[in-house]
Write a structure and sequence with these properties.
homodimer, alpha/beta, Rossmann fold, four-stranded parallel beta sheet, three-stranded mixed beta sheet, 11 strands, globular, binds nicotinamide-adenine-dinucleotide, binds zinc ion, 3-dehydroquinate synthase activity (chains A, B)
């Protein structure tokens, strides 16, 4: 597993924590800051700390969870950076899941108009997805990632060992993106996944997922075109995720929501873009076996559709989806009507 | 006065408001938003409104003044953009002084990871300075511009007519940067300024100032080197400005603070970088004639120096200044000790 070259930086997979230490030792940063959440401080910082012995850094910890991915927490971290006299040649090391890497990336990209940062993604989701693409951001008023920048990290260090402490539900959350990578671009990979033990996907499966995402991102860094392929499952999924965050005591993970989105958008694909009934059945079978059924409140479907309309990927009043032609092939910019989207929610609810 | 080419965009000076309308009419944006403050709504919006007849746009107004250049106001504007369903192909038109153009630029550069914006600077300061360079940002905890991005506008429209309603104190504020442009790069321009009626600098003088700033910025867009020339007067000036914002009922304008900073840093130049006593006297004479004397509280000089240390332009613990070699020539990255900086404040206080 060689390092993967992304946009101006490398993603390492082997001995990654040692590679991070080399990166630090060979750099000329004036100060180092590590951003964690309260859980990665416990589970992930120790493996880094033993390697950092003798080096000086400051730790900044935020609370864990999507509820904390907001501007209030950014302000807290910015103030700590100010208090620690972080200058323009400081490095921020984001150690955590997608919340920490997205928010830390945004914080770094706007502190003093931009300081360098590296990501050490510690969840499956952040390893296979947030690790590539340069998207940083935070939520506002429960609209996900509505405030952010496109800024590449200076490096990404993926350590498979971190996944060993990850709860099953978080593994499943990342797995949804891996399945998506197969569905949109690589039928063989989809088959590999289908036939693997997915309670802890192997390092090789993680690697292939990052490769696929990286190919798509490099072809279209600013999401003007083909990169929208990665939105498969996300038009419906994001809206369901936001709805769940606002309404459920125990809200859906990103991957659980995307799995629902992929069921709905596969149904739309079958209706609109040529996905065969057989392939639809196969996709729905795999997803419904892996993910618990969510109680979609159909009487509130309008609220979910309103959330889709506010999605930042839309232009004007159209609702845009990426749909499948077959497993491994997709089409971007497929306009779906509100009725079609409502029907797709009904399809899911009726399963 | 031809348009000036800056980094990927043009700055217009002639019939600028009509040029803005052409820009709008020839574009393919889905929505237009105009950001004003309560004063530019009164003084500057009407001239635009008459030209906008028949076109659709939404107005977003913030309160006026540096106290409003903060994240709370950003959040307010971001929420309005969300409510107005602003999508990624929306255009934000910032109509106001440096507060509106800096904050509006930051808001646009981070909303949905970046939408386009154009600036219509309506103060002298924003015309000769904030119009070039791609710096966006807001203050946090009274640290100026500590949060922001480097993002270029799509165009800048400079209308000299807007200066007619500007209070004298605001004219003087912009004038300080024009004098700075002469001091660091163009002795002839300094002499022109010295011999002009400066109660309302002519369009030609404004134009030359933008030209000088643009040359410096193009040579070094990310402030890695020569662009630091523009920091002349700003190491001391920014700190005095922040101190005044925190302590004075009627706080200094940016230009008044920079004028103080230029006196102090000219004194440092005479001491350290070869500025002659004659030229020091000339500079001090012009600045003290134009700007009211500020009552620097020397017993609190330490607080001002602490603010200099927190300045985002510093690296590590060094305090960096741009100093003059002669009128029209400068040197960047001149390290000054805290004692030297304190003495320069004493020099000003003793004038
Ligand atoms: N930038 C991108 O391209 C991109 C892509 C996908 C998702 N995201 C974002 O990522 C976020 C979701 O990512 P996530 O699921 O990693 O969220 P997360 O960061 O909230 O992590 C999930 C939970 O796992 C905990 N955790 C992290 N590492 C652990 C470990 N090694 N062992 C045990 N527990 C651990 C965290 O503390 C948290 O409680 C969302 O905000 C989403 O918007 C961004
Ligand atoms: N981005 C840059 O490169 C850059 C450069 C210099 C200054 N700045 C920033 O600009 C700000 C200062 O700029 P400023 O002095 O323009 O501040 P400002 O925007 O606060 O304007 C000063 C006052 O003049 C009013 N005003 C604006 N246009 C007017 C008009 N035509 N007639 C009457 N009143 C008018 C405003 O409402 C305000 O009350 C600071 O925040 C500074 O950090 C940025
Ligand atoms: Zn996703
Ligand atoms: Zn200035």
């Amino acid at each position: 597993m060689n390092n993967i070259n992304s946009i101006g930086y490398e993603i390492s997979f082997q001995n990654s924590l040692n590679q991070l230490i080399s990166f630090i030792d060979n750099s000329s940063y004036t100060k180092f800051f590590i951003l964690t959440d309260e859980i990665t401080t416990v589970h992930c910082l120790p493996a880094l700390e033993v390697r950092l012995v003798g080096r000086t850094y400051d730790l900044i910890e935020v609370s864990a969870g999507e509820e904390c991915k907001n501007l209030d927490f950014c302000i807290g971290v910015w103030k700590m950076l100010i208090d620690f006299n972080a200058d323009r040649k400081s490095l921020l090391i984001n150690l955590g899941g997608g919340v920490v890497t997205d928010m830390g990336g945004f914080i770094a990209s706007t502190y003093k108009r931009g300081i360098d940062f590296v990501n050490v993604p510690t969840t499956l989701l952040s390893q296979v997805d947030a690790s590539v693409g340069g998207k940083t951001g935070v939520d506002l008023d429960s609209i996900k990632n509505i405030i952010g920048t496109f800024t590449q990290p200076k490096a990404v260090f993926i350590a498979h060992e971190y996944l060993s402490t990850l709860p099953e539900r978080q593994i499943l959350s990342g797995l949804a993106e891996m399945l998506k990578h197969g569905l949109i671009k690589d039928q063989a990979y989809w088959n590999d996944l289908k036939n693997s033990d997915l309670s802890l996907p192997s390092a090789e499966l993680v690697y292939r997922s990052v490769e696929i995402k990286n190919e798509v991102v490099i072809a279209d860094p600013h999401e003007k075109g083909i990169r929208k392929a990665l939105n498969f499952g996300h038009t419906v999924g994001h809206a369901v995720e936001t709805f769940s965050l606002d309404n459920d005591k125990r809200s859906l993970t990103h991957g659980e929501a995307i799995a629902i989105g992929m069921v709905c958008e596969s149904w739309l694909s079958c209706k609109k873009s040529g996905l065969s009934q057989n392939e639809l059945d196969e996709i729905v079978g795999v997803l419904m076996r892996l993910y618990p059924k969510y109680n979609l409140q159909l009487e509130r479907a309008d609220e979910i559709i309103t959330l889709m309309r506010k999605d930042k990927k839309n232009e004007g009043n159209k609702i845009n989806c990426t749909l499948l032609v077959s497993i491994g092939n997709c089409l971007i910019d497929q306009i779906c009507s509100e009725d079609e989207l409502r029907e797709s929610l009904e399809f899911y609810a009726g399963l």
